[in-house]
Amino acid sequence: MAAERDAPCRELRWLLGQLNELLDRLDAAEHAWSQWLSAVVTEYHGSARNLVHYWAIRQCDLRRLQVRLAAFGLSSLGRSESHVQAALLQVRAAVVALLDGTWREPDNVAVRADEGRALLRQRSITLLGPPPETRVARIMVTLPSSAATEPQLVHGLVARGMNLARINCAHDDPDAWRAMAAHVRNASAALGRTCLVAMDLAGPKLRTGPIQAGARSLKLRPSRDDLGRVLAPARAWLTAAEHPVPAPTPGVPTLPVPGEWLARRRDGEMLAFVDSRGAKRRMELRRRDSDPAGMIAITDKTTYLVSGLVLHVEPIDDPTELGLLPERAQSLRLQRGETLTVTRDCSPVPVDAENGPRIGCTLPEVFDCARVGEAILFDDGRIGGRIVAVTRDELRVRIDHAAASGSKLRAAKGINLPDTRLPISALTVKDLADLATVVEVADLVEMSFVQDPSDVVALHEELARRGAEHLGVVLKIETRRAFEHLPELLLTAMRRPRAGVMIARGDLAVEAGYQRLAELQEEILWLCEAAHLPVIWATQVLDQLATSGLPSRAEISDAAMGERAECVMLNKGPYIDAAVEVLDDILHRMTEHHYKKNALLRQLHSWPLEPAP
Fold this sequence. Notes:
By secondary structure, the protein is α/β, with parallel strands linked by helices. It is built from 19 helices and 29 strands. Helix 1 crosses helix 3, helix 3 crosses helix 16 and helix 15 packs across helix 16.
């Protein structure tokens, strides 16, 4: 019997020793990170210490300890991110109490057990604005260019649940950004809601160079069934070449024609012509709701159009020429085993170069830093290979990853070099110029391609020089190097108030590997919770719904996972209104089920209270 009583005591003493070792690690970690901790502003000091504490215990494999703590009904430390020291001391006190019957509330801790959640909530409000009444996570929406001229679009987004409007400084210009921000402010005031403005600095551009354009031509093709029968005719939008108006329906191609000629056209008239293949074709004109801006032309035949094509009106003789059509974008087709030459020269390249495929790179520093054997990825990882030769002006890349039939590589597609250290600043000359408008109209600024603490310091200094210490700063974690230096980046961000993180999952998945994305985004969420810093869950959330109007099953689950962040970002698309409404509903439902890693056991209403007879 004595041996049976001694066994639990031995186990408890082992647990006590393990907990003491972990507590010692906290002190050692504070000493190791003391230089970083001393630079943090006072209001973040406890959170910075807690971040270092979390880093310290995650250097250990705690799984055995967790299992043995749970065997005694004690906390297994699985939810200790927000209050590491307090959690360890409380569990230690419980172990001591089991051994000798005493209990004492821990004091002088970095963050109390009941304080961490409140700190994160308050900092989320400070950075991202107050949460809506029905959910905890905010919704951020990337505004399209049309938001600068269509205030009703912005008003609709705010009405449907947008809490932050994101302006991408890689597109449009300062006048457009000011107009977008003004529309957000006006809609917020009219609806009595808070909607902040976030502006995203473009950062250094690492993209493929231009490709020589193809012919100015356009293909119209009706929709057919498996037997070749026409299900829906091909459509085009005729508009005045002098003052073109976009097609009223997204995706319908535009045909520019002389305005005076277009004004003479009547509903039901037929256009006859010979297309670029020599085929005789006819298109019927239809006026859309008496719209004077243009007409719809329909045909049930596949038709190839080119600039200068002569259009005849039946039954009258009133010919005209088709105006300037856009040049067709071309692409390189790359095969596995093929060698692609990436060049410092960014002149447009032909698609059929004599010495094999070539394409430019927009970032010259690549050619000074890349090394043989390093990986290089194109177009969100759709194409990949290894660098097999490096010269001053060229990289030769053996393509290892492409579709079986070859993959198309277009101009202005992203390039990722996950193995290459590029000593470039995250703040470009363009970013510094754009900051003038950011400081003027935004509530927070998002820093792209941050990799090193010096990048964060440079932005802080630039904001201080402009008197913009009030501006919130969000670090976009989108490279492998940024993830590897996340503790240092967070501690540097905490040198001033109003800081947060965006998990930019697109580039991060390409650089770290898609198979690791789920793991990485979890670890970022945990570390930011330990620092009590709000997180924005971004990239391709409900992307199919926003672009096509119909969501995939997988992206609904992904959107629900985003509820563990303080904000979820949607990208632009023709069905963005529907995406906002669906995300609002998902986040509202999930708020009652989860907080971070915790399942919230509310009463379920999915099944009846009484069993079915």
